[in-house]
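User: Hey, quick favor. My workstation is busy. Could you predict this chain's structure for me?
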Amino acid sequence: MDTTPPKVATAEPGAEARPLRNAILHKLTYDLGKSRLGARDRDWFIATALAVRDRIVDRWIDQTRASYEVGAKQVYYLSLEFLIGRLLRDNVSNLLLMDEVKAALEDLGVSFEALREAEPDAALGNGGLGRLAACFMESMATLSIPAFGYGIRYDHGLFRQLIRDGKQREYPETWLDFGNPWEFARPEIAHEIGFGGTVEAVPISEARVRHVWKPAETVQAVAYDTPIVGWRGSHVNTLRLWSARAADPLRLDAFNRGDFLGALAEQVRQESISKLLYPSDETPAGQELRLRQEYFFTSAALQDLVRRHLRVHGDLRSLPERVAVQLNDTHPAIAVAELMRILIDLHDLPWDEAWQATRGTIAYTNHTLLPEALESWPVPLMERLLPRHMQLIYLINALHLDDVRQRFPGNDALLSAVSLIEEGHGRRVRMGHLAFVGSHKVNGVSALHSDLLKKTVFSDFNRIAPGRITNKTNGITFRRWLQQSNPALTSLLVEAVGPAVLDDEKALEKLRPLADDAAFRERFAAVKRANKEALAKLVKERLYLQLDTRAIFDVQIKRIHEYKRQLLNVLEAVALYDEIRSQPTRSWVPRVKILAGKAAASYHRAKLIIKLAHDVARVVNSDPTVRNLLKVVFLPNYNVSLAELIVPAADLSEQISTAGMEASGTGNMKFALNGALTIGTLDGANVEIKEHVGDENIFIFGLTTEEVAEHRGKGWRGESAVSRSRRLEEALEQIEKGVFSPDDPDRYKELVAGLRGDDWFMVAADFDSYFTAQRDVDARWREPDRWWRSAVLNTANVGWFSSDRAIAEYAEEIWNVPVRRG
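Assistant: No problem, here it is.
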């Protein structure tokens, strides 16, 4: 299908294309050393990217300089993940160069789509956290907010997922094999990052000492800059990623003795910091590497911004007025101690002034209520790896607890709850607590999540610091997830409500009256059918499976995790399969269940769910009695580019996490924007999506957050739900007895036992409600006018979920920076 974004006012492509054509040829010849005849798609992609990059650089340099000249406040967004995906279409579209680029390439006999496919996905993230960071960077540029994103330039991003015999296999993601044409190496920008060693107290007066940290080892953080272009090229910001480089890459003495491996051992160890995203932390060595990664990029970012601030403003006391640092989750929480170290040890600020500057500068976004995701580190590890920071954390904690003790005398339980040091089985540093204490604002990422933060994980902090927790519901960039991913729908929207929809998300509201226009609904449905045909074509090419595009495309694409409940989806597929076989004369609605996602390499149960999905798919898809009424599809190696094809094709969006466990979700927003109806629990941003699209245009099921807590509090056992549900009992028996795994009948006994047991994620508890809601989906599908009316209203009513709105709220209420469009 055509993936050309809608036309926006540009110059005549014919006149403009010739210089760009020549620029592409010049890059191909003189940067790549290739001729037209010998060039492959990858070569053409790099040449085109370099030519487009040249169109970015002037405005990037000019706008960066202008920001410094006027003393604009800078935002620094620290994130361990930036899931930016491919950038060719993003940059070309945001620069309004699509017609020009396509015309230039057509004249050269090259397909733009082939070049886009040749670009590797920059998989520098695991899922929603990293994709949110990418959306936020684009929105900050679109709203002309001067900003830097700081992260790690991983040699290998999230692993490449291959499926062998239904099992996930992990292989390195080699996105840098042929270089990255969008980035600029900055070898001159390198900061020294220390680990280990000792701390000495050096007297500097009768009353004061300076603490001097003497690290046992030093690693260099070397900068690589990628320009981030806002919509219509309005502004260009910088994503600065750090690569680890050994200070002494080769031990010549060892090499000359013939110990060639030993000569490089230290280099390999130090440079492993930026080698791989999310190394397993199941071993002590893995834990240490994770902590080294987090400190590495956080320290580099803070050293970098302090250097820049001093050069422009001179006085570090003005940091809160000139700098806003946003911590994206707890990964960069060590920033609190590191900024204090920089201000006190390196720049001689008194403690109170340094603490005021630190807290006034830093804000923290929490993304989870899961205790295991609120990082904590063993005190012995911190003391060995970051000895000076451990001293500072002890002092921060002591002053913090003194304040709490004075305000809440005699409340030892409160002191224990808010201490930065957990004193249980093995003392640990609570990084979420550190981030909270060291920030002036802490935000959740949906209304429900922020409310739960106040009531659960940060309830005690909310008591001692009322008003610090605020809400900033997540958003997505409509440029990527509508205009670029779904150009046919975007063209229809522009035709229907005008070109303002390209710039202002609120313009989508003008679509509402057209939900009652039969002709418009048919055109809307036709766009969806074309997108489904494109996805079906990909499924046939990759999995050799023919899909019925008249069926409901029922989609769940996200990280595989028990709380996201892909297992509930698969169980419903098994129950539906049984019903279709037992009632062959019933008028069934055809359905294609599409799943995609990666399980963490060490997450055994999540990987078992992937295997179960494949086992069920193998049986269902090959059973002639089902008559193509049900298909189960698992697309491997889920990434941003695959999502860009799946999201526009979805009819039904599965957002079925256990209530109270998903902080927000952003996939739910992408699907609704593209006209998919949501089936989901009252969890995360589903609550707000329901409020915006209307109760009749969403399918809600399952226990509420309060009911989940009540079940758990009463010692809920899934067996009670199983005994009341014939469908669930039969589905579990088939899985348990090896109907879907005849080669290993016991493969899923552990999985089923968990559902019959504590059923922590309420899969059994919610099954009947979910199955009923799915039949409500079938009933709505049988009434096309009602279905497509709801689909149009989903698109019309989710403009509020734009990342532009989210970033404008951060800017106004947390960062105190102005916002400007265009």
